[in-house]
Amino acid sequence: MSYELKEEEKLRELIDKLQRELDKKNEELFVQEREIAQLKEMLKQESYTDKLTGFYSPKAFESILQHKKSRAERTRKPFSLLLIDINDFKEINEKYGHTAGDEVLKNFAKSVKSILRAEDSIARWGDDEFIVLLSETNFDDARIVEAKIEFFMKDWEVHLMEHIIHYSYCIGISQYRFNESVIDVVERAKDNLKADKHRFDQRKSI
């Protein structure tokens, strides 16, 4: 076989390889678009936002969590969760009133949202709890996000009439482990949040 024919054959093989890679990428893109369309349809059928903060409701977040689990299994890139609890929120409501409590939640929501990326998701998980899903983020990178939140919000306060309300938070982090259920990854975040709350209570008692 002549040199020219060998080079031509190599070129054809390269073109075939690139075409296969392009076809694979197009197929992945099609799957992603279909999943996004399905997710949007599910969210339409649910009450998917919290009226006070504008964040996702727990029910809507569960749908997003399932979607991200499927994506993580396909791409082999994990996501991480941050479960955040406002400290002494009941006492804030009792001392300053529920309007003050609402202002604390809105202040917190606005501040945290400014730190997150567009591809991340956040929901109001309970009265004084929020849950954040960090897309394609491992545990160590989630700790970096936690540090950013701590840095930008170390002196949190809300001004309400003559009152200046200082507040703080505790946080639990978990990383999705392939093939586990979404319940498991949420439960680990809860366990880590409980541990952080325990440390907070110990600091208060000193």
Which CATH class of the largest domain is shown? Alpha Beta
SS strand fraction: 15-25%
CATH architecture annotation of the largest domain: 2-Layer Sandwich
Order of strands across the main sheet: 2-3-1-6
Q: Mean pLDDT score, rounded?
A: 86
* Number of distinct helices: 6
Query: Given the C-alpha coordinates, what overall shape results?
Result: elongated
Number of strands: 6
* CATH domain topology of the largest domain: Alpha-Beta Plaits
Biggest β-sheet, characterized? 4 strands, antiparallel
Q: Please give the share of residues in helix.
A: 55-70%
Report the radius of gyration as a whole number of Å.
23 Å
Q: By helix and strand content, what is the structural category? A: alpha+beta
Domain GGDEF: 77-206
Coiled coil: 1-42
Protein name: Diguanylate cyclase (GGDEF) domain-containing protein
GO molecular function: diguanylate cyclase activity
